[in-house]
């Protein structure tokens, strides 16, 4: 391999050969260039984001008939609407007359969507129902039946809506696999609702920096968030070491902080937790200090807690690292809360979230500084960056636990990088799967 040859000058198979030579998750070796090279970014776009399931939103965001949200699915705008019969549907946000973006609002409630260009009118089930001056200008020739909005494939799991551009996707449930055991703790320990529209902001960071951090990096909290310990907000700098790290198939992974001497969930909801969770899951939630994780490729989650007005309150959020370029991403954060908690508890839980992991939150600001500086170092086409490896060897010498009550590969103690290695292993597999499909089709 010519070391000065730019990745953009290589053929697709040369790029994949180069990635396979240099990215070695099993040995804990990940080259920095995969966090910033524009050609790798394009490959990810094609082989990962166009093919896998991506999170779009939560059913509670469209609780009523006629509610809709507009979201991005791998760079393309879609409308997710609950139609008048109560069915959730997703449509490509493009008018079938001349291609205008049909809906330009983020959310709302509508029976019909009227195109801003020539006024074609679509029902919230996607059917074209109105055309200005139809009889006069088209006579009987316009077949409105054939002009419905283009449907987009979606599936839901426990209130979470996922979409994909893959015409033949694996079932969402299979994609989530064993990780559902842990994902359930976050999104269906009780009936959960999203409060308010998601918060969104754009930072100059590569999308994988966020996923990489949330999939299993508790180690950084001692330093990046060291001020928290100095301020006495947590007992000490090694606060986040205790617990387990888990990974499952398909690149999913999380850290679970345990035990917690302080129960930070609403006590009155214990019966609901018991009803929604298995005894093993309930045992974990009863001892949970915090959990952070990442559902491949770019949906992270977090349950943490802080003291608000003398009481420990947990807060739950989902965060998506939406790529908008090799060195830029939009961070989208949903705040979730137990629907049946008291209004006071919900308010304080939200306060706990805003103080810590909203865009103005103390942890969030620490993290985004790191993501941005990593991206600045790794970005671009610098050939030398391909010789610079990052180290993911932590915990390679350790054996997983044999008796943890949940599935997956579980390590005692959160300070390991097994989840990262599992994440990049699947990342590599998907990029190579693209080549295999191309070769099979040749
Ligand atoms: S492009 Fe929508 S009505 Fe013409
Ligand atoms: Fe952090």
CATH level-1 class of the largest domain: Alpha Beta
CATH architecture of the largest domain: Alpha-Beta Complex
Shape, per Cα inertia axes: globular
Overall mean pLDDT stands at 94
β-strand percent reads 25-35%
What is the quaternary state of this protein?
single chain
Count of β-strands: 21
The class by helix and strand makeup works out as alpha+beta
Name every ligand kind in the structure.
FE2/S2 (inorganic) cluster, fe (ii) ion
How much helix, percentage-wise, in residues?
Answer: 25-40%
Q: Outline of this structure?
A:
With 442 residues, the chain is α+β, with helices and mostly antiparallel strands. 28% of the residues lie in helices and 26% in strands.
Q: Can you put this structure into words, describing what you see?
A:
The chain is an alpha+beta fold and 442 residues long. It folds into two domains: 54-157, 3-layer Sandwich (Rieske Iron-sulfur Protein), CATH 2.102.10.10; 178-429, Naphthalene 1,2-dioxygenase Alpha Subunit, Chain A, domain 1 (Alpha-Beta Complex), CATH 3.90.380.10. The chain has twelve helices and 21 strands. The chain has helices at residues 12-22, 38-49, 134-138, 172-176, 180-187, 207-214, 226-230, 270-276, 279-287, 343-356, 362-378, 418-441, and strands at 29-31, 54-58, 67-73, 76-82, 88-92, 107-109, 112-114, 121-123, 128-130, 153-157, 160-164, 192-194, 199-203, 243-247, 253-257, 290-295, 299-308, 311-325, 328-338, 389-391, 409-412. Strands 12, 13, 14, 15, 16, 17, 18, 19 and 21 form a nine-stranded antiparallel sheet that branches. A four-stranded antiparallel sheet has the order 5-4-3-6, with no helix packed on it. The chain is globular, with a radius of gyration of 23 Å. The model has no long low-confidence stretch (mean pLDDT 94). FE2/S2 (inorganic) cluster binds next to loops.
């Amino acid at each position: 391999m010519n070391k000065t040859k730019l990745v953009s000058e290589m053929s697709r198979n040369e790029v994949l050969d180069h990635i396979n030579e240099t990215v070695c998750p099993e040995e804990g070796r990940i080259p920095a260039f995969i966090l910033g090279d524009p050609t790798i970014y394009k490959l990810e776009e094609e082989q990962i984001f166009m093919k896998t399931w991506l999170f779009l939103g939560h059913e509670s965001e469209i609780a009523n008939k006629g509610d809709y949200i507009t979201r991005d699915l791998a760079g393309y705008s879609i409308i997710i609407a609950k139609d008048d019969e109560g069915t959730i549907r997703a449509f490509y946000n493009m008018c079938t007359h001349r291609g205008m973006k049909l809906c330009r609002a983020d959310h709302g409630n509508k029976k019909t969507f009227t195109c801003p260009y020539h006024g074609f009118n679509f029902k919230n089930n996607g059917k074209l129902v109105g055309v200005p001056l139809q009889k006069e200008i088209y006579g009987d020739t316009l077949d409105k039946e054939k002009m419905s909005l283009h449907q987009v494939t979606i599936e839901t799991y426990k209130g979470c809506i996922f979409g994909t551009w893959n015409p033949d996707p694996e079932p969402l449930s299979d994609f989530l696999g064993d990780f559902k055991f842990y994902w359930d703790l976050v999104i269906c320990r009780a009936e959960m609702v999203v409060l308010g529209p998601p918060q969104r902001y754009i930072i100059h960071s590569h999308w994988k920096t966020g996923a990489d951090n949330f999939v299993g990096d508790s180690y950084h909290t001692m330093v990046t968030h060291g001020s928290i310990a100095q301020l006495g907000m947590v007992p000490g700098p090694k606060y986040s070491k205790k617990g387990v790290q888990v990974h499952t198939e398909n690149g999913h992974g999380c850290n679970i902080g345990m035990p917690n001497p302080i129960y930070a969930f609403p006590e009155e909801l214990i019966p609901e937790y018991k009803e929604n969770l298995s005894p093993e899951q309930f045992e974990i939630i009863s001892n949970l200090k915090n959990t952070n994780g990442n559902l491949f490729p770019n949906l992270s989650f977090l349950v943490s807690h802080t003291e608000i007005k003398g009481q420990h309150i947990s807060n739950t959020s989902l965060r998506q690292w939406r790529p908008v370029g090799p060195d830029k991403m939009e961070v989208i954060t949903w705040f979730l809360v137990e629907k049946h908690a008291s209004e006071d508890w919900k308010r304080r839980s939200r306060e706990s979230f805003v103080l810590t992991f909203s865009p103005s939150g103390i942890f969030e600001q620490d993290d985004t500084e790191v993501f941005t500086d990593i991206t600045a170092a790794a970005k671009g086409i610098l050939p030398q960056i391909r010789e610079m490896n990052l180290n993911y060897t932590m915990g390679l010498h350790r054996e997983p636990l044999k008796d943890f009550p949940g599935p997956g590969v579980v390590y005692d103690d959160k300070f390991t990088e097994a989840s990262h290695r599992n994440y990049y292993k699947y990342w590599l597999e998907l990029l190579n799967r693209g080549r295999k499909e191309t070769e099979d089709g040749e």
